[in-house]
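Narrative of activities, Objective 1.

The group set out to show that a structural description can be obtained from nothing but a protein's sequence at a throughput compatible with the screening campaign. Below is one input-output pair from the validation batch, recorded exactly as produced.
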Amino acid sequence: MKLYEKIGYGLGDTASSIFWKLFGVYLMYFYTDIVGIDVAVAGTMFLVTRIWDSFFDPIVGIITDRTETKWGKFRPYLLWMAVPFGVMGVLTFSSPEFTLSWKTGFSYLTYSLMMMVYSLINVPYGTLLGVLSDNPQERVSLSSYKMAFAAGGSILALALIEPLVDLFGGDAAGAGSWTRAVSVLAVLSVALFFATFFLTKERVRPVSEKSHSLKNDFLDLVRNVPWWILLGGGICVLLFNSIREGGAVYYFKYYVLSPDALFSGVPAVTLYLVLGQAFNIAGIVLIPYVSAKIGKKGAFILMMSIVAVLSGFFWFIGPGDIVPMMVMQSLISLAAGGIMPLLWSMYADVADWSEWKTGRRATGLIFSSSSMSQKLGWSLGGAMTGWLLFLFGFEPNVEQTETAIRGIRLMQSVLPACGAIASVIFMIYYPLGEKVMAGVSSSLKEQRGEAVRKEV
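Output recorded for this entry:
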């Protein structure tokens, strides 16, 4: 594949990640400390809206599998849904001057609609990986570009959001400063999705173009053991990410002795978050070499085991240990950075394995499960963030009790470590190693060649 196409594909995840990172790191804070929604109510909102939307993802996958246009099955959605994506992102970080109950209802509505629009553009975007190339190593490369550019989008969002909010009046100006700040990032996201549409091309066609029933698609999915394993492992990885990232702002605001400590003019919390994304990129660059040596499954187990151990050690960092915080954050992010590229390339392998086994290809439905696991993990993690803060007695914008501080510390250390350990347990049982997939890929190429010869 041409370099420009890999870059073009990666830009789509830059667009997605700008908002995904804002949701993961700042949305709970926006709801509790800016809008004034109770922390337990906000946690429940995360669960309700995201779980519904998680199950909306397979519906989108089914629709895209049956879409036929001159641009292909999946690319058109990047064109059609880019502007709605940007608009709903801005509305999610808005809050009209109503009573608190009306503000809560408005937040439920906008966040729910945003997650549905996110599905309508991100499921086709993710599925595109499976039809840009049928080469397994090329898919790892594409996935690495995808996640590297995603990390770039995260860095961009984390580096710009607080300066933009301050530019428009800061927290003291209320929700309006956040709305205007997010509007700037929304325009950028829309432009990046358009770039992905124009720079990519769908190539991989199913062995058989015959239509097949929705019932058979679902039966194939339910019987697909590797899919279930990736689903479970993916949810656990996102639990690790969401709890840790969702608690980071609270960790620095209420636990760290000098939360506003500056490093060359950069607040400590911003440096912490940006370092995480920068070392995520380093991990993404590293992972193709690791997976080439020990396979995708081995690389996953090794890296998440390292993540679990380092996250456990994070508990012992004191409130004044700024430098150790940054070092440990960098190491954890380096080890965790390559995990999502591995998962995305594994979903492409699962789609091939399913086609080889059943004779039917449902790329959109299978890839939508990746988005579903991502949202389920974030929904559970986001809800747990709110519920745990409530359970430990957190109150916004006041000095916290020892119990609340302990809970905030757990969300940066022990609890994420548990998610990492659970993901390793799932992956131990993953059956599609390199030898299996080499045979599957060879067989599918032969079948596609025969199909082309018959058409001629």
